[in-house]
């Protein structure tokens, strides 16, 4: 039985051109991994990537990355429907652009707390197709290897290093907000994790 279920089946034996032969999880369809120490640079160098927070609204309200899209889900099983709608809405908008406009590849990057949900989400995203055209919804799919916890651990390590030049401020904001009672501020707290310089 799955520890974290999306409520959809992902065909592990799928033979997709985008299937990865070697992933840390061994899942053949997992998205391309971006290591924590490469994450900020990846996002800076790819301003056209849609950054998606795979966590539920409660977790997102504790803190997220700048420019992250909040799917506003209550549970993980809500995520597949949201992702389908998101992918089709954006693709539809692109297809309605002027005929002389070159359609850019659709890139998404996902993150979650520890990497399990984004592992499943990226595998699912790589199998998704437009219901009308049958074309893939996403051209490139990435995720933060090890999730936010790995990222925060990396930032903490860099900050404790005497040679660190990281301008990441308040790296512990996400971790400490998880320990605080969200009812003390009526659940209106929302922190963002800035990109480090």
From TrEMBL:
<feature type="compositionally biased region" description="Low complexity">
    <location>
        <begin position="160"/>
        <end position="178"/>
    </location>
</feature>
<feature type="compositionally biased region" description="Low complexity">
    <location>
        <begin position="13"/>
        <end position="25"/>
    </location>
</feature>
<dbReference type="Pfam" id="PF00581">
    <property type="entry name" value="Rhodanese"/>
</dbReference>
<dbReference type="InterPro" id="IPR020936">
    <property type="entry name" value="TrhO"/>
</dbReference>
<dbReference type="InterPro" id="IPR036873">
    <property type="entry name" value="Rhodanese-like_dom_sf"/>
</dbReference>
<feature type="domain" description="Rhodanese">
    <location>
        <begin position="45"/>
        <end position="160"/>
    </location>
</feature>
<protein>
    <recommendedName>
        <fullName>Rhodanese domain-containing protein</fullName>
    </recommendedName>
</protein>
<dbReference type="InterPro" id="IPR001763">
    <property type="entry name" value="Rhodanese-like_dom"/>
</dbReference>
<feature type="region of interest" description="Disordered">
    <location>
        <begin position="1"/>
        <end position="28"/>
    </location>
</feature>
<feature type="region of interest" description="Disordered">
    <location>
        <begin position="160"/>
        <end position="197"/>
    </location>
</feature>
């Amino acid at each position: 039985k799955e520890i974290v279920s999306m409520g959809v089946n992902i065909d592990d034996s799928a033979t997709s051109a985008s299937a990865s032969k070697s992933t840390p999880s061994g899942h053949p369809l997992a998205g391309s991994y971006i290591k924590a120490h490469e994450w900020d640079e990846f996002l800076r160098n790819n301003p056209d990537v849609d950054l998606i927070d795979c966590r539920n609204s409660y977790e997102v309200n504790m803190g997220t990355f700048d420019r992250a899209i909040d799917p506003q889900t209550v549970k993980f099983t809500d995520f597949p429907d949201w992702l389908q709608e998101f992918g089709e809405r954006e693709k539809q908008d692109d297809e309605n652009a002027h005929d002389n406009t070159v359609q850019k590849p659709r890139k998404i990057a996902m993150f979650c707390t520890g990497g399990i949900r984004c592992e499943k989400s990226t595998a699912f995203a790589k199998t998704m197709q437009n219901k009308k055209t049958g074309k893939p919804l996403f051209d490139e799919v990435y995720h933060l290897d090890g999730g936010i916890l790995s990222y925060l651990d990396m930032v903490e390590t860099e900050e404790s290093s005497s040679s660190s030049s990281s301008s990441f401020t308040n790296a512990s904001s996400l971790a400490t907000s998880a320990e605080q009672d969200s009812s003390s501020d009526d659940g209106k707290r929302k922190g963002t994790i800035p990109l480090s310089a």
